[in-house]
């Protein structure tokens, strides 16, 4: 075996094991969701006898998953739009406009990335309760914006720093205001980064459980990820139905990864290279 071939095998083996470790939980959950409760109790690791979707339909109708799905769509859409708007504006200002304190503001956003949500959870909940935003769409949207805005600002600032200053100067000479430069120049140039960051933020918000559970305590306003937990009782659990609920909640994320994986990868490296 040649040296190049051996190297490829040494790289492919751990990557294959990693892929298997990633795919197996999804396959296991899908297999459990196809079983009856009796099949699961008798042998949880065996292959389902038949492909059946009774558990999926039961999970969707039993605890109001349709309502939870709509709640998630509303909250995630509003949060992502606000994050992209504020993040792109802040990224443009911090990367292309020279003003006193811009470096300190950028370092502040960078430092905020290292603050876990658990540290600000109690103060945030008290502020939201005092302002009457607990158990409202607006409260959860603002909580998501507060949590994920530093990440958005960091990536957009890094991306906009790759834009040549001469482009901004030429636009100003043509008579554009700062808002005109942002709308006509920076937004079109930053479209690839905005798409990537928007996808990442949508995934973060959709997969969140802790913030949604804190901001939306009532059953009516639960998001989909929180609503899945209602399928599991305190003293008993229908595991196949619970697995079906997990599949329902994960399906939009899986489809997003499947069709937009390149944009997701670009978002992780946004602003890392020039040119």
Automatic annotation (TrEMBL):
Topology class, membrane: Multi-pass membrane protein
Domain ABC transmembrane type-1: 69-260
Transmembrane segments: 9-28, 68-92, 104-125, 137-156, 193-219, 239-260
Entry's localization field: Cell membrane
Family annotation (CDD domains): TM_PBP2
Keyword Transmembrane set for record: yes
Highest taxon listed in the record's lineage: Bacteria
Keyword Transcription carried by entry: no
Pfam families, per the entry: BPD_transp_1
Classification via SUPFAM superfamilies: MetI-like
Keyword terms of this UniProt record: Cell membrane, Membrane, Transmembrane, Transmembrane helix, Transport
Coiled-coil segments on the chain, per record: none
Family named by the database record: Belongs to the binding-protein-dependent transport system permease family.
Protein's recorded name: Sugar ABC transporter permease
């Amino acid at each position: 075996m040649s040296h190049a071939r051996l190297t490829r095998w040494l790289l492919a083996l751990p990557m294959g094991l990693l892929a298997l470790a990633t795919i197996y939980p999804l396959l296991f959950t899908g297999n459990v969701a196809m079983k009856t409760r009796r099949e699961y109790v008798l042998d949880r690791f065996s292959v389902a006898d038949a492909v059946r979707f009774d558990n999926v339909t039961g999970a969707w109708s039993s605890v109001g998953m349709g309502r939870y799905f709509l709640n998630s769509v509303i909250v995630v859409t509003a949060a992502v739009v606000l994050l992209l708007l504020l993040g792109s504006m802040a990224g443009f200002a911090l990367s292309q406009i020279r003003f006193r304190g811009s470096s300190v503001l950028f370092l502040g956003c960078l430092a905020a990335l290292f603050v876990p949500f658990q540290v600000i959870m109690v103060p945030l909940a008290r502020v939201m309760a005092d302002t009457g935003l607990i158990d409202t769409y607006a409260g959860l949207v603002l909580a998501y914006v507060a949590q994920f805005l530093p990440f958005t600002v960091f990536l957009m600032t890094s991306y906009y720093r790759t834009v040549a200053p001469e482009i901004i100067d030429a636009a100003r000479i043509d008579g554009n205001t700062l808002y005109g430069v942002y709308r006509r120049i920076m937004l079109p140039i930053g479209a690839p980064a905005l798409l990537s960051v928007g996808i990442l933020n949508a995934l973060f918000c959709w997969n969140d459980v802790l913030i949604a559970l804190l901001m939306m305590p009532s059953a009516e306003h639960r998001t989909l990820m929180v609503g899945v937990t209602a399928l599991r009782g305190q003293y008993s659990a229908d595991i196949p139905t619970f697995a079906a609920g997990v599949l329902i909640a994960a399906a939009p994320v899986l489809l997003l990864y499947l069709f937009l994986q390149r944009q997701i990868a670009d978002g992780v490296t946004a602003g890392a290279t020039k040119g």
